[in-house]
Amino acid sequence: MNKLDENSVIGISALLIHAAKIDENYSEHEKNLVKNFIESYLNNKSSEEILKKAEELEKNSNQLLSFTNIIKKNSIDLKKDILEHLWKVVISDNTVDQYESNLMRRICGLIYVPDKVCAEIKLKLINSK
């Protein structure tokens, strides 16, 4: 699995936060899912500190999808892992609305992951709940 540098993790975390906020409910559970993502890539850093930077970045960014460029340059395994983290956030409240579905479709398109692969990740997570 490719490792990501701190700035990449902050950018991708901002994308996760955006996915969490798209239904206008950014819960503590979703924050913890973002922290799990951070810890899986930066095990020696404070996830709380990185989360704060990512939240700040998400709040001030209207070009959020530019973070997909970080993901696009990486391996398919890394892309799948990031999509899995995104889906965990999206389905954490047990509903997927049209905005969340649309966001995931757009992200998959921007990072060159086929819809089929994206759907398989979603189904795997739903079935493992």
CATH architecture classification: Orthogonal Bundle
Q: What would you report as the Rg, rounded to the nearest angstrom? A: 13 Å
Report the biggest beta sheet as strand number plus sense, adding barrel if it closes.
none
Structural class, please?
mainly alpha
CATH class: Mainly Alpha
Total discrete domains = 1
Note poorly predicted spans: none
Q: Give the CATH topology.
A: TerB-like
Shape: globular
Mean model confidence by pLDDT:
91
H/E series:
HHHHHHH
Helix run count:
7
Number of strands: 0
Helix content: 55-70%
β-strand amount = under 5%
Task: State the CATH superfamily name.
Answer: TerB-like
Q: Give the distance, in angstroms, between the N- and C-terminal Cα atoms.
A: 25 Å
Outline of this structure?
This protein is an all-alpha fold. It has 7 helices and no strands.
What would the keywords be for this entry?
129 residues, mainly alpha, TerB-like, globular
Structural write-up:
With 129 residues, this protein is mainly α. The chain has a single domain, classed as TerB-like (Orthogonal Bundle). Helix content is 70%, strand content 0%. It has seven helices and no strands. The longest helix is centred in the N-terminal third of the chain and has 16 residues. It starts with 5 loop residues before the first helix and ends with a helix. The relative contact order is 0.17.
Strand and helix map with partners:
Blueprint: H1 6-21, H2 28-41, H3 47-59, H4 68-72, H5 76-91, H6 98-110, H7 115-127
Helix pairs in contact: 1-2, 1-3, 1-5, 2-3, 2-5, 5-7
